[in-house]
Amino acid sequence: MANRVTINADLAAGTINRNIYGHFSEHLGRCIYEGIWVGEDSPIPNTNGIRNDVVAALKQLKIPVLRWPGGCFADEYHWKDGIGPRESRKRMINTHWGGVVENNHFGTHEFLMLCEMLECEPYISGNVGSGTVQEMSEWVEYMTFDGVSPMAELRQENGREKPWNVKYFGVGNENWGCGGNMRPEYYADLYRRYQTYVRNYGENKIHKIACGPNVDDYRWMDVVMREAHGMMDSISLHYYTIPGDWTRKGAATSFSEDEWYITMKKALWMDELIERHSTIMDRYDPSKRIGLIVDEWGTWFDVEPGTNPGFLYQQNTIRDALVAGVTLNIFHDHCDRVQMANIAQVINVLQSVILTEGEKMVLTPTYHVFDMYKVHQDAEMLKTTIDSQDYAHNDQKIPQVSVSASKDAEGRIHVSLCNLDNQSGADVEIDLRGLAGAGLKVSGTELTASIKDAHNTFEQPEAVVPSVYQAFTVEGTKINAKLSAMSVTVLELIAE
Ligand code: AHR
């Protein structure tokens, strides 16, 4: 039996904000130090201390926005520790992540330089949990004020004459947990207060992001929206896909059939979470002015054996690629509300797109999904329906195929298809309506593997890489495609 997909080429249903393809970098494990920052004297090729290989790989992805400095680290971070001559910056213990020494060599200037190299927007997370209003206010002034002021002068003394453009600013992170264990009523009041002093200087207009809920904490969303919706541009949501629980999350490789299935099922839960949070937001913001920013998402497994448990270093398999593919398809579906998302985290932590070891770098299956899917950035989402077969496991079932389609500025249509079943292929009949009479030129790329924990290593960096996809036939505006088991496929359709 085939899965049936109808793509309405003439029914645009909103724009897929390119920021949905955003990333997250925290002072955690080997994300910043080693992954991004190696220092100017490193034998690893770098520009002003930042790895050249990593910058090139991320530029290839067209990463639109990068969040920093945390995560939980953000609510312990005092930005003045990370400016001025590097040799004299404070050394301290990163108490939250692994108890290692943080020398503050990567600070505001280094992060904003990285964003300039990547040509992406910076997204700064401010400290509400342990920082003061003055500290937050001065950070914004330091980065963005172009006039006479103590912070602008300090910036200039530190070598940066002109301010940076900083659009995205988060007022706290996980303030229901590591960011202060607050109740939503208390956080909402603090948000109102702190954001007052996050000022717009000159042309720099800050997009203020309130700390939103953990997973399905609908009360948090309701209270913060009720109390502060008029003072925010967006609100965040955090949801990680964890096959087990917080005590035993499950291994990143060598996992069971059950774990594969539950991972897919839990990844699909993102759809319901967004739907329900968005419905609450609708009550206070029916015009959908306020964005939902899923600024932490992705898989979270047990750390690789023998690594520091506080470093959250995990391998990345074809299973992660499927989680990335279905989640991005879900974000597209909600592009009227989801204005940004930041997978956690960009390098060497959780569901990374890049892993490094010394001078070596490897691109993960998740990287390849982001590369294949980048064609959707800023494209018009096309209204698409699917009648999917079931992917059944024991006495449970979920849809086997996930799909999303968009039309780019040149009129090319891209269709991303995920087959969540790791054992059976999927026949898909795609009917492209709204292009009556037109013929189609179709090409495709596929990411798949023959074993369910296939992954790339420093010894075998190309075990899971995209290949040309040709398992389809075309008749007029209908396409019959055969998806491989556990695959992510992107088709490009050009009307002729
Ligand atoms: O991404 C790892 C951690 O997960 C972040 O620091 C925190 O915000 C979340 O709990």
Features:
single chain, 496 residues, alpha/beta, ten-stranded mixed beta sheet, eight-stranded parallel barrel, 24% helix, binds alpha-L-arabinofuranose
Can you walk through the features of this model?
The protein has 496 residues and is an alpha/beta fold. Helices cover 24% and strands 29% of the residues. The protein has nine helices and 26 strands. The chain has helices spanning 52-60, 108-118, 133-144, 150-157, 184-196, 218-228, 257-284, 318-333, 365-373; strands at 3-15, 22-24, 46-47, 50-51, 65-68, 92-94, 100-102, 121-126, 168-171, 207-210, 234-241, 291-299, 338-344, 354-357, 360-363, 380-387, 390-393, 396-399, 401-407, 413-419, 426-433, 440-447, 467-468, 472-475, 478-483, 487-495. Strands 23-22-26-20-19-16-1-21-25-24 form a ten-stranded mixed sheet, covered by helices on one side. It has an eight-stranded parallel barrel with strand order 2-5-8-9-10-11-12-13, surrounded by four helices. Strand 6 and strand 7 form a beta hairpin. The two termini are 30 Å apart. The protein binds alpha-L-arabinofuranose. Alpha-L-arabinofuranose is lined by residues 26, 70-72, 173-174, 296, 344-345, 350.
Low-confidence stretches: none
The number of helical runs is: 9
Question: Whole-number radius of gyration?
Answer: 22 Å
Helicity, as a percent range? 10-25%
Q: Calculate the mean pLDDT score and round it.
A: 97
Instruction: Indicate the structural class.
Output: alpha/beta
The total of beta strands comes to: 26
Basic shape: globular
The major β-sheet equals: 10 strands, mixed
Strand content: 25-35%
Record the strand order, biggest sheet: 23-22-26-20-19-16-1-21-25-24
Distance between the termini: 30 Å
Bound molecules: alpha-L-arabinofuranose
